[in-house]
# Entry
Amino acid sequence: MNPHLQPCPLARFSSFPALLLLLAVSGAFQPAATAQTVDDIIAKNVQAHGGAEKLKSVHTLRTIAKYTQGSFQADFRQENKREDKVREELVIQGLAQVQAYDGKTGWQISPFGGRKDPELLSQDDLKSLVVDADLDGPLVDYKAKGHQAELVGHDSVEGTDCFKIKLSMKNSDVRYYYLDADSYLELKVEVQTMIRGALQEFELYYGDYEQVNGIYYPFVVEQAQKGSSSRTQITVQKIEQNVAMDDAHFSMPVAKPAVKTPSAAN
# Structure
């Protein structure tokens, strides 16, 4: 999960989000805090999650989780590899909905719709998957990635004071990060994205942070349409770092041609 359960997204599965890297500054009402820039805050964000060197030492990441929506449950797995590779699977009764991006091409397999062969993703469907492919999350090296960040001010999440950062992304999405002023970890992210010409807004909530080899990840991520009280939940069971992953695992498989059965002789 890019500390993501990257900084995480499951937007496409009502989702996982990109899992991760977000922080704030303590001492919100002290004069020194008001003098800090958005870059100061993001630098502390990176350090609080383990530091840039630690984060960059992770070359692959595997997140195994449970997906819950009401009484419905499924297994979820997200795998990331530098540079910009991701594969996400939602498994229901042994069948896996797969979406993946190898740094150039996005594709999916949708067995629940009777489609067992891989197919290309549209540009709209690919947008959030490309964000998930960023192993470090959008805030890390945001300028080099073509994003723009702005410290908006303060807001609260369920009574907790937060710093609010607006991130205008290269793909035209806008994300608002609500960063706990005491713990320096994200509590909420609001996402605004255009899909097929229509504005879609949803919210991600992060909690239950745990440390894995010196890096803090959220082990619970909830998602809801903006203004809705109904949330889907991703509960992380295991995170593995630097496990072997072949590049072919992220590439679109070649569909096997149908085998024609010879007709019986008359």
